[in-house]
# Entry
Amino acid sequence: MSWASKLVKPYRVEDGKKFRLKDFDPGDTGQLHSKEHAEELLQRGIASMAELQDKLYAQDRWGVLIIFQAMDAAGKDGAIKHVMSGVNPQGCQVYSFKVPSAEDLDHDFLWRTNRLLPERGRIGIFNRSYYEEVLVARVHPEILQNERIPAPLVTKDIWKERFDDINGCEKYLTRNGIVTRKFFLHLSKKEQKRRFLERLEKPEKNWKFSAADLREREHWDDYMKAYEDMIVQTATEHSPWYVIPADNKWFTRLVVAAAIVETLEDLKLAYPKVGPEKRKELEAARASLEAKK
Ligand code: ATP
Ligand code: MG
# Structure
């Protein structure tokens, strides 16, 4: 088992049925003895990721979809920025999903994300995703009401149906060579308060503060219930959730990097093989280059 797989093992959930959020500690920092050690490993992770991504792109067969979900101030943006710092921007696409537009609402709930799925050879990152449809839409029933779904279809089974549809969609993607990995950055309510206060106090962080975030905080327990059920219902072997401790950013970033490295390693990527035909072509090209001035 690689160092990356070892490091992420405690946070990988592939059998939702046994999952309980209370078994996971947002303040966990694993077996690491120091921040410096973590930084060293992070750099190693970023370097491996760059190498693996180069192969992913060259091979042009697999696609990788990485989904980030979290409460506000859990560090999604920072994790994406740091962890992807080493990869070739041409091979990576990041999309953020905010409140749906009128056009989005005129379609089925997977429409807006399906259009932006990663191509083969690429890593696609979703900062929020269709999972909002079983999180914010569950915590705020009025959101569901505004979705313009025909009334007879909105029954008490709607969440179960959405989970089925999500699982079906992820299975479909897996069977097509688009691998899905889902990251929940698990922040404590206490650490969120500390980060919000910091946003209020530090001028360079003021821009990040939003009163809406405070309102969502009021629904903390409902969100935790929704997150737990989401993971119970959608963590599978082919499309696992990683429940990543988010109270220490340095640890969050390391686990995110390691999980991406693990995902790419599992694909057994390799540069395309040069066959006899191509070999001849290369030899001829070399001879021609060398023969002329
Ligand atoms: P940041 O605050 O770091 O810029 P963010 O992802 O929090 O990033 P915001 O614009 O603050 O961006 O918030 C986006 C909001 O959109 C969130 O409150 C989220 O719940 C909401 N949202 C996302 N998808 C949906 C959806 N399908 N239905 C309803 N609301 C959604
Ligand atoms: Mg926000």
Observations:
- The chain has a mean pLDDT of 96.
- Residues 72, 210, 213 surround magnesium ion (ligand 2) (CB under 6 Å).
- The chain is about 50% helix and 10% strand.
- The longest strand covers residues 178-186.
